[in-house]
Specification:
- This protein has 224 residues and is α/β, with parallel strands linked by helices.
- The chain has one domain: Alpha-Beta Barrel (TIM Barrel), CATH 3.20.20.70.
- Helices cover 35% and strands 18% of the residues.
- The chain has an 8-stranded parallel sheet with strand order 1-8-7-6-5-4-3-2.
- Helix 1 crosses helix 9 and helix 7 runs parallel beside helix 9.
- The mean pLDDT is 94.
Length: 224
Amino acid sequence: MKRSTIIAPSLLSADFANLAAEIRDVEEAGADWIHLDVMDGHFVPNLTFGPPVIARLRPLTRLPFDVHLMIAEPDRYIDDFVEAGADILTVHAETCPHLHRTVQRIKGRGIKVGVAVNPATPPEAVKWVIGEVDLVLVMTVNPGFAAQRFIPEAVGKIPLIRKWAQSNPGVLVEVDGGIGPETAAVATAAGADVLVAGSAVFGRPDRRQALSDIRKAAAHISSV
Protein backbone atom coordinates (compact mmCIF):
# COMPACT_ATOMS: atom_id res chain seq x y z
CA MET A 1 0.00 0.00 0.00
CA LYS A 2 1.27 3.45 -0.92
CA ARG A 3 2.20 5.56 2.09
CA SER A 4 0.54 8.91 2.60
CA THR A 5 2.52 11.67 0.95
CA ILE A 6 4.42 13.97 3.31
CA ILE A 7 4.53 17.65 2.35
CA ALA A 8 7.42 19.75 3.62
CA PRO A 9 7.19 23.49 2.87
CA SER A 10 10.64 24.96 2.27
CA LEU A 11 11.53 28.08 4.24
CA LEU A 12 13.78 29.13 1.36
CA SER A 13 10.65 30.67 -0.19
CA ALA A 14 9.29 32.14 3.04
CA ASP A 15 9.50 35.76 4.19
CA PHE A 16 12.81 35.80 6.06
CA ALA A 17 11.71 38.85 8.05
CA ASN A 18 8.74 36.90 9.44
CA LEU A 19 9.89 33.30 9.76
CA ALA A 20 8.05 32.68 13.02
CA ALA A 21 4.74 33.73 11.49
CA GLU A 22 5.44 31.79 8.30
CA ILE A 23 6.10 28.58 10.24
CA ARG A 24 2.93 28.99 12.29
CA ASP A 25 0.94 29.66 9.14
CA VAL A 26 1.99 26.50 7.30
CA GLU A 27 1.70 24.38 10.43
CA GLU A 28 -1.89 25.51 10.90
CA ALA A 29 -2.49 24.95 7.18
CA GLY A 30 -1.56 21.27 7.47
CA ALA A 31 2.15 20.95 6.67
CA ASP A 32 3.78 17.68 7.77
CA TRP A 33 7.41 18.79 8.05
CA ILE A 34 9.38 22.02 7.80
CA HIS A 35 12.19 21.89 5.23
CA LEU A 36 15.23 24.06 5.95
CA ASP A 37 17.71 24.61 3.11
CA VAL A 38 21.16 25.43 4.45
CA MET A 39 23.43 26.98 1.80
CA ASP A 40 27.02 28.11 2.16
CA GLY A 41 27.87 30.01 -1.04
CA HIS A 42 30.47 27.34 -1.93
CA PHE A 43 28.71 24.11 -2.81
CA VAL A 44 25.78 26.17 -4.08
CA PRO A 45 25.75 29.81 -5.25
CA ASN A 46 23.63 31.19 -2.43
CA LEU A 47 23.68 31.83 1.33
CA THR A 48 20.82 31.18 3.72
CA PHE A 49 21.04 30.41 7.44
CA GLY A 50 22.87 28.17 9.87
CA PRO A 51 22.52 26.52 13.29
CA PRO A 52 21.82 29.70 15.31
CA VAL A 53 18.73 30.54 13.25
CA ILE A 54 17.49 26.95 13.32
CA ALA A 55 17.94 26.83 17.09
CA ARG A 56 15.79 29.97 17.47
CA LEU A 57 13.09 28.53 15.22
CA ARG A 58 13.01 25.10 16.85
CA PRO A 59 10.78 26.04 19.84
CA LEU A 60 8.15 27.54 17.52
CA THR A 61 6.71 24.26 16.21
CA ARG A 62 6.44 20.56 16.94
CA LEU A 63 6.75 19.68 13.25
CA PRO A 64 9.87 17.73 12.29
CA PHE A 65 12.77 19.86 11.04
CA ASP A 66 14.00 18.41 7.75
CA VAL A 67 17.43 20.05 7.45
CA HIS A 68 19.05 19.86 4.01
CA LEU A 69 22.77 20.67 4.08
CA MET A 70 23.85 22.12 0.74
CA ILE A 71 27.29 22.88 2.09
CA ALA A 72 30.90 21.87 1.57
CA GLU A 73 32.48 19.73 4.29
CA PRO A 74 29.23 18.89 6.10
CA ASP A 75 31.04 16.64 8.60
CA ARG A 76 32.44 19.73 10.30
CA TYR A 77 28.95 20.93 11.22
CA ILE A 78 26.93 17.79 12.00
CA ASP A 79 27.04 18.30 15.75
CA ASP A 80 26.01 21.96 15.42
CA PHE A 81 22.89 21.13 13.38
CA VAL A 82 21.91 18.23 15.62
CA GLU A 83 22.17 20.44 18.68
CA ALA A 84 20.20 23.18 16.90
CA GLY A 85 17.23 20.82 16.61
CA ALA A 86 17.39 18.92 13.32
CA ASP A 87 15.17 15.82 13.27
CA ILE A 88 16.41 14.73 9.85
CA LEU A 89 19.83 15.76 8.54
CA THR A 90 20.45 15.30 4.82
CA VAL A 91 23.89 15.62 3.25
CA HIS A 92 24.83 15.60 -0.43
CA ALA A 93 26.62 12.58 -1.83
CA GLU A 94 28.67 15.04 -3.90
CA THR A 95 30.18 16.63 -0.77
CA CYS A 96 30.99 13.47 1.22
CA PRO A 97 34.14 11.62 0.13
CA HIS A 98 33.51 9.06 2.89
CA LEU A 99 29.74 8.83 2.66
CA HIS A 100 29.33 5.73 4.84
CA ARG A 101 31.26 7.41 7.64
CA THR A 102 29.18 10.57 7.41
CA VAL A 103 25.94 8.60 7.48
CA GLN A 104 27.06 6.59 10.49
CA ARG A 105 28.12 9.70 12.34
CA ILE A 106 24.70 11.31 11.89
CA LYS A 107 22.94 8.10 12.94
CA GLY A 108 25.18 7.97 15.98
CA ARG A 109 23.71 11.29 17.12
CA GLY A 110 20.28 9.66 17.36
CA ILE A 111 18.51 11.45 14.50
CA LYS A 112 17.42 10.40 11.02
CA VAL A 113 19.82 10.68 8.12
CA GLY A 114 19.26 11.43 4.45
CA VAL A 115 21.46 11.54 1.37
CA ALA A 116 20.76 13.88 -1.55
CA VAL A 117 21.78 13.74 -5.20
CA ASN A 118 21.78 16.58 -7.72
CA PRO A 119 20.08 16.22 -11.12
CA ALA A 120 23.33 15.37 -12.92
CA THR A 121 24.51 12.91 -10.25
CA PRO A 122 23.88 9.24 -11.07
CA PRO A 123 21.61 7.43 -8.59
CA GLU A 124 24.41 4.91 -8.03
CA ALA A 125 25.94 7.52 -5.72
CA VAL A 126 23.47 6.43 -3.03
CA LYS A 127 23.24 2.74 -3.89
CA TRP A 128 25.83 1.56 -1.38
CA VAL A 129 24.30 3.40 1.59
CA ILE A 130 20.64 2.72 0.80
CA GLY A 131 20.41 0.20 3.61
CA GLU A 132 21.76 2.68 6.14
CA VAL A 133 19.71 5.81 5.48
CA ASP A 134 16.21 6.92 6.37
CA LEU A 135 15.71 9.14 3.33
CA VAL A 136 17.02 9.71 -0.18
CA LEU A 137 16.51 13.20 -1.57
CA VAL A 138 16.27 13.47 -5.36
CA MET A 139 16.88 17.03 -6.50
CA THR A 140 14.70 18.03 -9.45
CA VAL A 141 16.41 21.42 -9.83
CA ASN A 142 20.03 22.42 -9.52
CA PRO A 143 20.28 23.52 -5.89
CA GLY A 144 20.79 27.11 -4.82
CA PHE A 145 17.65 29.08 -5.59
CA ALA A 146 13.90 28.86 -5.15
CA ALA A 147 11.28 28.96 -7.92
CA GLN A 148 13.33 27.07 -10.50
CA ARG A 149 11.94 24.97 -13.31
CA PHE A 150 11.36 21.29 -12.58
CA ILE A 151 13.76 18.87 -14.34
CA PRO A 152 11.56 15.84 -15.16
CA GLU A 153 14.45 13.59 -16.19
CA ALA A 154 15.69 13.53 -12.58
CA VAL A 155 12.52 11.69 -11.52
CA GLY A 156 13.74 8.65 -13.47
CA LYS A 157 16.11 7.89 -10.59
CA ILE A 158 13.28 7.08 -8.20
CA PRO A 159 12.34 3.60 -9.53
CA LEU A 160 15.98 2.51 -9.31
CA ILE A 161 16.27 3.82 -5.75
CA ARG A 162 13.07 1.97 -4.88
CA LYS A 163 14.51 -1.25 -6.33
CA TRP A 164 17.74 -0.92 -4.37
CA ALA A 165 15.78 -0.15 -1.19
CA GLN A 166 13.87 -3.44 -1.14
CA SER A 167 16.01 -4.52 1.81
CA ASN A 168 15.21 -1.25 3.59
CA PRO A 169 11.46 -0.74 3.05
CA GLY A 170 11.30 2.08 5.58
CA VAL A 171 13.42 4.44 3.50
CA LEU A 172 11.61 7.53 2.20
CA VAL A 173 12.20 9.11 -1.18
CA GLU A 174 11.98 12.89 -1.12
CA VAL A 175 11.77 15.18 -4.15
CA ASP A 176 12.85 18.82 -3.98
CA GLY A 177 12.67 21.44 -6.70
CA GLY A 178 9.90 22.95 -8.77
CA ILE A 179 7.16 21.10 -6.89
CA GLY A 180 3.55 22.24 -7.37
CA PRO A 181 0.32 20.32 -8.04
CA GLU A 182 1.31 19.24 -11.56
CA THR A 183 4.86 18.18 -10.73
CA ALA A 184 3.73 16.66 -7.43
CA ALA A 185 1.68 14.22 -9.48
CA VAL A 186 4.73 13.36 -11.61
CA ALA A 187 6.97 12.81 -8.59
CA THR A 188 4.36 10.79 -6.70
CA ALA A 189 3.66 8.60 -9.73
CA ALA A 190 7.38 7.77 -9.82
CA GLY A 191 7.29 6.71 -6.18
CA ALA A 192 8.09 9.80 -4.09
CA ASP A 193 6.97 9.81 -0.44
CA VAL A 194 7.98 13.36 0.52
CA LEU A 195 7.43 16.52 -1.51
CA VAL A 196 9.34 19.70 -0.74
CA ALA A 197 7.36 22.72 -1.94
CA GLY A 198 8.64 26.27 -1.70
CA SER A 199 7.10 28.99 -3.82
CA ALA A 200 4.06 26.78 -4.55
CA VAL A 201 3.18 27.19 -0.86
CA PHE A 202 4.78 30.40 0.38
CA GLY A 203 4.10 32.19 -2.89
CA ARG A 204 0.34 31.90 -2.38
CA PRO A 205 -1.69 33.90 0.15
CA ASP A 206 -3.84 30.91 1.12
CA ARG A 207 -1.33 28.33 2.35
CA ARG A 208 -4.06 25.87 3.34
CA GLN A 209 -5.38 25.82 -0.22
CA ALA A 210 -1.86 25.58 -1.61
CA LEU A 211 -1.07 22.53 0.50
CA SER A 212 -4.47 21.02 -0.29
CA ASP A 213 -3.89 21.37 -4.03
CA ILE A 214 -0.54 19.57 -3.79
CA ARG A 215 -1.93 16.89 -1.51
CA LYS A 216 -4.91 16.23 -3.77
CA ALA A 217 -2.66 15.86 -6.81
CA ALA A 218 -0.44 13.39 -4.94
CA ALA A 219 -3.41 11.48 -3.49
CA HIS A 220 -5.03 11.12 -6.91
CA ILE A 221 -1.90 9.50 -8.32
CA SER A 222 -1.50 7.31 -5.24
CA SER A 223 -5.03 5.97 -5.64
CA VAL A 224 -4.74 5.12 -9.34
